[in-house]
Amino acid sequence: MTATPNRPGRIALVAFPGVRAFDVSVITEVWGVDRTDRGVPAFELRRVASEPDPVQLRGGLSLTPDRTLAWLARADLIVVPGLDDHLTPAPGAVLEALRRAHDRGTPLAALCGGAFTLAQAGLLDGRRAVTHWNLTELLQAQHPRVTVMRDALFLHQDNIWTSAGTAAGIDLCLHLVRTTHGAEAAATIARSMVTAPFRTGSQAQFIEHPTPREDRDADALAEARAHAVAHLAEPHTVSGLAARAGMSARTFARRFQATTGTTPMRWLITQRIAAAQKLLERTDLAVPEVARRAGFGSEITMRQHFATHLDTSPRDYRLAFHDRGGPGEVDTPGPDP
Predict the structure, then answer these.
(1) What phi-psi label fits residue 6: left (phi over 0), alpha (psi between -120 and 50 degrees) or beta?
(2) How many C-beta atoms lie closer than 10 Å to residue 156's C-beta?
(3) DSSP letter for each residue of 255-319
(4) Contact (CB, 8 A) for 83 and 19
(5) CB environment 83-92: b (16+ within 10 A), e (fewer)
């Protein structure tokens, strides 16, 4: 999505009979609420459909479009909600409009079963995609040319985003805000929604129910994470964090992944990236000092992680998002552990 300071980001919510009311609500909550008084950029969210008639949703609800499919040519981002019945055929005009939008280079994002709609349009053929863990076999069976990934919250390929079920749709929407408007804007929206501000797409979407022993260890794991976040500038190892939790390194790593869906070191990198984003946005600290405070040790290392995870450099990130709250000093710790 491309946004400029001169106008709001234009977001299109694509609606047709059968789309999930929950996903419509998520899209509306993220991009359809005015939070400019809290420093969040203005967004222009439009409900787009083939016809201007109300779109019927499950539970007696209806959605009234305010734009037709022609408006997709003006959108910076097009978001497709999931489906109540995942085999619901999308109108041919919608599928053709999505294909044209992708040809123009407009980013497309599908929440949960919205991947089935993109697959119907042929846009996922030969590409990786993710959907709810309980729908992966159905998506693969219905669309064998799609490479269905089974263990991710969301992923991106060729300007197309797909996400897993329910809460992962929120994660993807916040990630799209973060990558186009900065970590502070995404965190502000997350706080107002009372949801986690930062979960990476590579995190496992399904975590087994913890055993009683793991329940007893939860506080120790949380304390180790809190310590790492509060001391990001210091070097951390799995064995060091494990010792703080009173576990062996092997047990700590296994239970950490069972609890969070990711490894300790991958989790630590995401915390450091988030802290660096905040410092680049809200301070005038030199980039090497940002790298030190965030725990990367060197600007080179931080630059490598920004390229891998954010597809940008720290300096370009600062040029895009600096001075949302004015320069100054801020605390280094990143998002909640």
Answers:
(1) alpha
(2) 17
(3) HHHHHHSS-HHHHHHHHHHHHHHHHHHH----HHHHHHHHT-SSHHHHHHHHHHHHSS-HHHHHH
(4) yes
(5) bbebeeebee
pLDDT tens digits for range 3-60: 433 345 999 999 999 999 999 999 999 999 999 999 899 999 999 999 999 999 988 8
- Res 70 pLDDT > 60: yes
Give me the pLDDT at residue 289, please. 96
Residue 161 host element (H or E): strand 160-163
Between CA 78 and CA 193 the distance in angstroms is 21
Mean pLDDT (the chain, rounded): 87
Q: How confident is the model at residue 311 (pLDDT cuts 50, 70, 90)?
A: confident
Encoding tokens for residue 51? 């016809």
Q: How far is CA 294 from CA 19, 274, 317, in A?
A: 41, 9, 15
Contact yes or no for 241/250 (Cβ under 8 A) = no
d(CA 7, CA 4): 6
Q: List Cβ neighbours of 139 (8 Å cut-off, separation of 6 or more).
A: 86, 115, 116, 119, 129, 131, 146, 148
Tokens 């996400």, located at residue: 163
Nearest to 244 by CA among 224, 274, 263, 214: 224
Q: Rounded to the nearest 10 degrees, how much is the dihedral formed by the CA atoms of 254, 260, 261, 263?
A: -50
**50: its two tokens:** 């083939």
Task: Check: pTM over 0.85? Answer yes or no.
Answer: no
Q: What is the pLDDT of residue 2?
A: 44
pLDDT digits (tens, 9 = 90+) for 119-132: 999 999 999 999 99
Angle at 46 between CA 44 and CA 47, to 5 degrees: 160
Q: Nearest to residue 221, comparing CAs of 232, 235, 210?
A: 210
